[in-house]
Amino acid sequence: AGQHGLQLDVGAQRMAEWPVHSVEGLRVIAGRIDLLLDDGTNLVILDHKSFPGSMDLDGERLCAFGGQVELYFRAIRQGIERNAHHYWIHQPIAGVMVRVALDEGG
User: Which of 62, 55, 61, 70 lies closest to 106 in space, CA to CA?
Assistant: First the structure.
């Protein structure tokens, strides 16, 4: 396992630009996940943020990103019955990946 304890099966499905669409009450959730990984146990969202340099991920920005991805996870859960999930922000230009912990309460 890596520093954060995440191990994915080497056969994990890799779904790039995965469309997300669902209805939650009066809210429509729609978007595209940059990269969704699914090994049958873990769901992992990788969100690419491309801009020059490295971005400081302060609490306000993390809440904004986390809110968006939590909606994506809730939409995915409507189709499958799994709660295991991980969310990573990937800054390819800076060569940085940051794991973001989501509130299980949604």
Answer: 70
Determine the Cα–Cα distance for residues 104 and 90; give it in Å rounded to an integer: 22
Tokens 């304890």 sit on residue: 5
Q: What is the dihedral of CA 53, 62, 82, 84, to 10 degrees?
A: 70
CA 100 from centroid of its chain's CA atoms: 9
CA distance 41 to 32: 21
Global pTM value: 0.73
CA distance 66 to 80: 20
Q: For the segment 1-13, what is each residue's pLDDT rounded down to a tens digit?
A: 444 556 667 788 9
